[in-house]
Specification:
The structure holds 2 protein chains of 2 kinds. Chain A is of the alpha/beta class. Chain A is built from 8 helices and 14 strands. Chain A has a 6-stranded mixed sheet, sandwiched between helices. Chain A has a 6-stranded mixed sheet with strand order 9-8-7-12-10-11, sandwiched between helices. A two-stranded antiparallel sheet of chain A has the order 13-14. In chain B, strands 1-2 form a two-stranded antiparallel ribbon. Chain B starts with a strand and ends with a helix. Classes of the chains: A alpha/beta, B mainly alpha.
Chain lengths: 331, 201
């Protein structure tokens, strides 16, 4: 293991302290166990938007706290769901009387704990509902889409939900538009090297120098199979083909695209992937109405990338372009 | 006489005081089939809950709720999450009430069982605590004396544990060792027996 860290067991808390030190206007650490990251002050008179999940994916999840984004976020250990308590604390923090939407990645522990947190909140007369992000097309076929993992699509769902809440949508409207976004998002990743969980101390999986794995999950879950490393154009084509098979893009469609780095891949290589993706989608007559390239959902030092597409309608496009401000997303 | 927050406090503290050897026994049992953390979960869970007893309100629903919350702070164990789920389901049923008739305890257990099935995905017959609960519910229905209720519950739990001993586990990590689990007590079912025994004054 070759990392710039102190004691592995302090990794998560010290990263949070670093984030709060760098951006005190955005992040504050709270909760009984210091595992609720939140805005310095709650924003009154709007639906609260929160999330939570395992650590190791910054900016996902807590990095997206900010104006027009999340109000608070429960922080777990690396790749492990937080327990219910910081989730409930997040809901309590974000609640200003209009209800709270929880954006949850499709992982067993995250879902179960958020279900409990929502029930607990109900006992305190706070209405909290959730929307589940399950965008990884490699994780399960379309007929079992409820089994898909949540990956970089979380970023779009968060942006849409945060913008809707800031625009004055009520809780049900916010949940509905977040669900609409989730339904229109598809992602696929490719891994080149493994990540290393600090407390594990060694790589999560082995992969040969000349191998890649398309569809690998952000915790190293198996993808659709190993293959030899080829050109970035070929790899991008394979990824885009899978996305298009799952949800076709037609001439005249307006789509958002996120070419995301998993942590250790140079942004320059992401631009190579973007170049190919743009050509492919232009061939189909689609318009790329919103483009992001960078490290938006990571897996520590894993090398690799993911491509996320979101089909847009007027409402989604408007919310995607609405004002938002956090260290990792501004517009 | 009815079940109140005070009864809940006493029960939790009583189990907490006697949980040490139960924890060791459950760790050993669970280590043969699961990840060996059942005892730790119980010890930490009852310690957390007993720390929460003082602040428990007289509203029994909210008190059960405090107990559930304390239980969830024991991270990482599905058994802990399911126990919290059960406490919450029971709490929801009696929110706003300061007491509940003993005869209604079976209904609380039933709602706890329903919630655990919904959350955990196990079914009756899978050789889990659900089978213990089903046996207890059948036995204590219509019982209005607390002492008789506890005795009946404990003997139902023992019977369930023993009658499932020679069946395979059908869910959870133990399912991987389904054949190996034949002839072994299910750790969760065994835990229910010990917890009920510990409730005796």
């Amino acid at each position: 293991m070759k990392k710039l860290i102190n004691k592995p067991e302090n990794y998560v808390d010290e990263v949070l302290q670093g984030m709060a030190a760098a951006h005190p206007e955005t992040y504050a650490i709270g909760g009984a166990t210091g595992r609720m990251l939140h805005r310095p002050q709650p924003v009154a008179q709007k639906v609260g938007v929160v999330s939570g999940g395992g650590f190791g994916h910054i900016p996902v999840f807590g990095g997206y706290i900010g104006d027009g984004l999340l109000d608070a976020c429960a922080i777990g250990d690396v790749f492990a769901s937080p327990d219910m308590n910081p989730m409930l604390e997040s809901i309590q923090f974000a609640s200003t009387g209009k209800g709270v939407l929880c954006i949850v990645g499709n992982y067993g522990g995250d879902r179960m704990n958020f279900d409990m947190a929502c029930e607990m909140a109900a006992m305190e007369d706070i209405t909290a509902v959730k929307v589940v992000v399950a965008d990884d097309v490699a994780a399960a076929p379309p007929e079992e889409s409820e089994k898909r993992r949540g990956v970089a699509g979380f970023v779009y769902v968060t942006k849409i939900a945060g913008a809707a809440a800031a625009a004055g949508y009520d809780l049900i409207q916010t949940q509905n538009v977040a669900q609409k976004a989730a339904d229109n998002i598809r992602s696929i990743g490719v891994a080149l090297t493994s990540c290393t969980v600090p407390q594990a101390g060694k790589p999560t999986f082995d992969i040969a120098d000349d191998e890649i794995e398309i569809g690998m999950g952000i915790h190293g879950e198996p993808g659709v199979g190993r293959s030899k490393l080829t050109s970035v154009d070929t790899i991008a084509d394979q990824m885009i083909d899978r996305l298009l098979t799952d949800k076709p893009v037609n001439s005249g469609d307006r789509v958002a695209i996120l070419v995301n780095g998993l942590g250790a891949t140079p942004v320059e290589e992401l631009y190579l992937m973007m170049r190919r993706a743009k050509a492919r989608l232009a061939d189909l007559g689609a318009e790329l109405a919103h483009i992001r390239v960078g490290n938006y959902a990571t897996s520590m030092e894993m090398a690799g990338a993911s491509i996320t597409l979101m089909h847009l309608d007027d409402e989604l496009e408007c919310l995607l372009n609405a004002g938002a401000d956090c260290p990792f997303w501004r517009n | 006489m009815a079940f109140t927050t005070e009864n809940l406090r006493t029960s939790i503290v009583r189990i907490k005081d006697r949980i040490g050897p139960i924890g060791d026994e459950m760790n050993a049992l669970d280590g043969r089939l699961g990840d060996g953390d059942l005892g730790v979960t119980l010890v930490n869970g009852f310690r957390n809950m007993s720390e929460a007893t003082e602040a428990m309100p007289e509203d029994l629903g909210m008190a059960l709720f405090h107990a559930a919350k304390a239980m969830t702070a024991v991270s990482g164990s599905s058994f802990g999450t399911l126990m919290a789920t059960a406490l919450m389901a029971a709490g929801k049923n009696v929110k706003g009430q300061k007491e509940v008739e003993w005869v209604e305890v079976a209904q609380l257990l039933q709602s706890a069982q329903d919630a655990m099935i919904a959350r955990g995905g196990a079914k009756l017959g899978d050789k889990t605590v659900l089978d213990s609960l089903a046996a207890i519910i059948a036995e204590v229905r219509d019982e209005d004396s607390p002492d008789a209720l506890l005795n009946k519950a404990a003997s139902a739990a023992r019977e369930a544990r023993d009658s499932f001993k020679d069946k395979p586990n059908k869910i959870g990590r133990a399912r991987v060792y389904a054949d190996k689990s034949i002839g072994l007590e299910d750790p969760g079912m065994a835990a229910i027996v010990r917890l009920l025994e510990a409730l005796h004054p």
